[in-house]
Amino acid sequence: MAYSQIRLKILPSVRCLFDKLVQVQVEGLAPHKQVELRSKLVDDRGLMFKASALYKADESGQVDVCRAPSLGGSYTGVEPMGLFWAMAPETPHSKPLKKNVLSPTRVEIEALSADTGELLVSETNERGYMTEGMKRIPVKEGGIRGVLFVPPGKGPFPGIVDLYTFGGRLTEPRASLLANKGFVVLALAYMGYEDLPKNPKKLDLEYFEEAVTYLRGQPEVKGPGIGIISISHSGGLALSMSSFLSGISATVCINGCNANTVIPLHYKDLIIPPLTPVLKNITFTDSGLLYIRDGLPDPSLEKNRASVFPIECASCHFLFAVSEDDHNWNSVFFANQAAATLKSHGKECFQVVTYPKAGHFLEVPNMPHCPSGFHAAVGSEVAFGGEPKAHSEAQYDLWERVQKFFKSHLDNKSTC
């Protein structure tokens, strides 16, 4: 076989935004030849993530990943983006880290002979985060720390505060990709970033209030209210902001808790204590990972009521997105409890979306699934749950829902 005639194509272009779909094709193979396709990326820490799949060329010597089934490897069946979402870390319990969204994530795709393992052809897909003309502005304003993303074009645009996980410092991929959709997004750090405390003894809601005021005051941001997107521990912060602060119209809470967790939250004279973990409910998986899903008590019990956020006081719309296979905590239970609280106070401005077989970290589309990893609050590796394919499908669905939710509730003056 003349290798020079073999081509690996990434369509519509080798350069795209991270959340976009691409079509991988190999042409010029011998008819019905079996090839192994491999993908790999190296994250900003130098950790490698890989996937592979076995394909058989058609009679014209082509493999089109959008039409041909994988016969084995990291996934099977027709999976157009399988080489991306099925990537797993070489170093166990790792999650891809992207510190700097000014540069793309590079995913190398290789085609190898299934018979000999010989490399036939390779190509690199550059998956970027910022559309041309977008502004990335580091924010060190008063006490707040973060990065502001302003889309190109004539504003003003709806504004969103993006909060990430406990110990996540500052994470920019979701914020930048959301800004591409026509939002001004403030990726807000709240611990362990620049001069913010790494291990704070408490969090002050005034910090988040300052961030809301800052974002609403930007000339590119249209009012009257802003949105919040949150995940995991920051879901509780988003609920507290929605409960106590003005100017919030729409809140997305992804696998969060309806009560305070980990460290006390202060606001003016009020102190909201964290739930006390039930240590006897924390066990180990067969592989030796901590299983903490049932580690928190029922927030609705009388002794835990002081930790519950008074979301019945909120005037915003809520989107609760929860994974049934979340092993970090029982996010379905917490979301249903939050929904019941809103309903009992005559508020119907919420939706609960449930994803079977998805795990804790619902990220942007095409982000590799993270079934386990280091938990900053626990100080150890824990199970996060989820099955890769179902988790990937959940990420696609949620990404579209989040955009529709914000467009619907930030583009008009609707309140609950």
Can you give keywords for this protein?
single chain, 416 residues, alpha/beta, six-stranded mixed sheet, 6 helices, globular, BAAT_C, AB_hydrolase_fold, Acyl-coenzyme A thioesterase 1-like
Describe what this molecule looks like in 3D.
This protein has 416 residues and is an alpha/beta fold. Helix content is 17%, strand content 31%. The chain is built from 6 helices and 24 strands. It has an 8-stranded mixed beta sheet, sandwiched between helices. Helix 4 links the parallel strand 15 and strand 16 (248-254). It is globular and about 75 Å long. The model has no long low-confidence stretch (mean pLDDT 95). This is Acyl-coenzyme A thioesterase 1-like.
